[in-house]
Each structure stands twice: as C-alpha cells, then as structure tokens.
Write a structure and sequence with these properties.
2 helices; alpha+beta; elongated; single chain
C-alpha cells in the first residue's frame, strides 16, 4: 500500500477513486506515565511515555485505515491527514484519514 500526504502519487496515474478511508484509536493515559510526566514537567524535557503512546496510536490508526483501503481493493491512500480529539478526561482519539485510490 502506497501512503502519501500528497494529492497523488508522483510518477503514477490514479485510475480509480474509492473515496474516504479512515482509522482511529482511543487511548487513555497510564497512571505510572502520568506520575513520571508530572516529575518531568518540573525539570523539562521530552515526555517519552506520551511520545511512545502517540506513536503506538498513530501506527494503529494508520493500520486500520490501510485495512479499510485493502478491503476496497485500493493500492494507495493519498492526501492522508491526522486529527486528535479529547473523548473524556484522560483519554483522546487519534484519527487518520485519506482517499483510497488505485494507481498504475
């Protein structure tokens, strides 16, 4: 599966348009990571626990989007975007979406 944030795939022609595909995941904070993040806020620096949490969430959302595109027989997803939203205190959704197409 070709993935791109561009509106097309360079060097290829879009031959079929399948429409919007999406994938999402809702993740909650981890108490242990929250405590460490609170301590890190005092001295500054990267909050690695949250960085890892977001990387896992992005990967899962993208994989779900790819699975949906594969079911449509697409071989590429173009114009990929990400969005986040708060679901409840301590939990957030990461949403990946794009346009499923067939390219040649």
């Amino acid at each position: 599966m070709i993935l791109t944030t561009l509106e097309g795939v360079p060097g290829k022609t879009i031959t079929k348009h399948f429409g919007l595909v999406q994938g999402s995941t809702v993740r909650a904070k981890h108490l242990g990571k929250d405590i460490m993040a609170g301590l890190k806020n005092l001295v500054g620096g990267e909050l690695q626990g949250y960085t890892e949490l977001l990387q896992e969430a992005r990967k899962e959302a993208v994989n779900r989007m790819i699975q949906q595109a594969s079911q449509l027989d697409a071989n590429a997803i173009v114009n990929i975007r990400f969005a986040t939203s708060s679901v409840t205190q301590g939990a957030a959704e990461l949403f990946a979406y794009g346009t499923a197409v067939r390219v040649e």
